[in-house]
Design a protein that fits this description.
This protein has helices at about 20-50, 55-60, 65-90, 95-110, 120-130, 135-145, 150-160, 160-180, 185-205, 220-225, 245-255, 255-275, 280, 290-300, 305-315, 320-340, 345-375, 380-410, 410-450. It is mostly helical and about 450 residues long. The protein is globular.
Length: about 450
């Protein structure tokens, strides 16, 4: 039934040597554009219900509690599904897997516009969450396969910024549908689905599965640089006959670097959502107007885009020292957090929020790349899903549900304390990763000298 999702075999007809560089560059551009724009479309679907929650409450008679349950169902469903979808992405034709997930999301999102039943909406949002989980693992796998370590940080950061653009595109879709169809919620859901489905189709045409499937050498052979994991084993193998369970145990659960990066990511997720989710409620206690506090959520998100790309470029300039860049960011982040929670000057708080966008999102982008680089290429999708499971099921939940309960009982000081602890955990984990990364890079240097690279 799903034969079209099976990975293509290695091509029998190889690209002539004199055309390899030209073909590689052309396909790399296609992969970067396709993953960025497709993931942007994923975010259009993902954020429609969240963005339209107030009109939905008014039109459907839902309470804040019901909306919260729907959104939390999405978060938990997405986190769990991402683990399994990551494993499937590794075993699939990645470009078709990416498009297919978006097509399914579009269908389920469109159906949301035709029902007001709370339980049906809850079920549909769970299905949206599962299909949304197909996006990131497929994109990250493609970037890992198509770009060399020396410039992967920049490319990964550009892709990672697509979700910020997706948030803007989601609002644009809503405004267009509202204008054209007199505020019809059904039209809003349908418009977002149609636009995203068109994007999925166009990007499928310019995307590429993996180098060896189109007659090109794999990245290790093409770049002349062999990448190693913590055991000193090469990571260039694109496909494996290992089962999902074997890959999970042998390449993920027993990999110390994967665990350290995952827990670092989870800690920074607590900081991210612990700050962003509560800006509209926390800043009025500092004298901000409610409307200005809402705008600052957007400033916090958009300010991160140039910073994330620049810091990704810096990690490439430092020859792949991702954890070192993250470590410096977290030191700056801790200083900003202390200022954010203790200052009463609105101008200072605004500037700090602007800076924190980059200091939070850059490490989150780079740890996503670090976990991919810590495993063989046939396990990239699963490593993404494994980290995503901890990010959403534990990180986001702690930053929203836990902090909400603590603030109710103990006030905003409890929120600050929780976020400080999470930042401190990231700081300590990154100390370990800085030294581990240095050791792995030393092994890679020796291996490449031996191979004459």
């Amino acid at each position: 039934m799903f034969n079209f999702l099976k990975p293509s075999p290695d091509a029998k007809n190889l690209v002539p040597k004199e055309k390899v560089t030209e073909t590689y560059r052309r396909r790399q551009v296609g992969v970067l554009v396709a993953t960025c724009i497709t993931y942007l479309a994923y975010y259009i679907i993902r954020l429609i219900f969240t963005t339209e929650q107030k009109p939905i409450m008014e039109a459907y008679g839902f309470s804040i509690g019901q909306i919260g349950l729907i959104l939390s169902t999405f978060g938990i469903g997405y986190g769990i599904a991402k683990l399994f979808m990551g494993g499937l992405a590794d075993k699939s034709n990645t470009k078709r897997f990416l498009a297919f997930g978006l097509y399914l999301s579009c269908i389920f999102n469109a159906l949301l516009g035709f029902t007001k039943n709370f339980y049906v909406i809850l079920f549909l949002m769970l299905l949206v969450a599962v299909t949304q989980a197909m996006g990131a693992p497929a994109c990250q796998r493609e970037i890992s396969l198509w770009f060399a370590k020396k410039n992967r940080g920049t490319m990964f950061s550009i892709w990672s910024s697509a979700h910020n653009a997706g948030a803007f595109a989601c609002v644009a879709c809503i405004q267009m549908a509202t204008l054209l169809f007199s505020g019809s919620l059904t039209a809003v859901f349908l418009t977002a689905s149609v636009i995203s489905a068109i994007i999925a189709t166009l990007m499928l045409l310019i995307n590429s599965e993996r180098p060896e499937a189109v007659g090109l050498p794999n990245m290790a052979e093409y770049s002349g640089y062999v990448e190693l994991d913590e055991k000193g084993e090469a990571t260039f193998q694109e496909l494996s006959h290992k089962s999902f369970t074997q890959i999970l145990i042998q390449d993920i659960l027993t990999n110390k670097v994967v665990w350290a990066v995952t827990l670092t990511s989870m800690s920074i997720y607590i900081v991210r959502y612990g700050v962003m989710s509560w800006i509209p409620s926390y800043l009025p206690t500092k004298g901000f107007s409610t409307d200005w506090a809402k705008w600052l959520v957007g400033i916090f998100e958009l300010s991160a885009v140039p910073g994330v790309i620049i810091l990704g470029l810096v990690s490439d300039f430092l020859k792949g020292r991702r954890s070192l860049v993250c470590f410096v960011c977290v030191i700056g982040l801790i200083v900003c957090l202390v200022t954010y929670f203790t200052s009463t000057n609105q101008a200072v708080i605004t500037v700090v929020l602007f800076i924190m966008g980059s200091l939070i999102y850059a490490p989150l982008s780079l740890v996503g790349l670090m976990v991919n680089e810590a495993v063989p290429n046939y396990a990239v999708g699963l490593s993404t899903g494994f980290m995503g499971f901890f990010q959403y099921v534990f990180g986001e939940t702690a930053a929203t549900a836990l902090i909400g309960q603590l603030v109710d009982r103990f006030g905003w000081h409890a929120s600050a304390t929780t976020i400080y602890v999470a930042a401190a955990a990231a700081f300590l984990l990154l100390i370990y990763l800085v030294f581990k990364e240095r050791k792995i890079m030393q092994m890679e240097a020796k291996a490449n000298i031996t191979n004459g690279n």
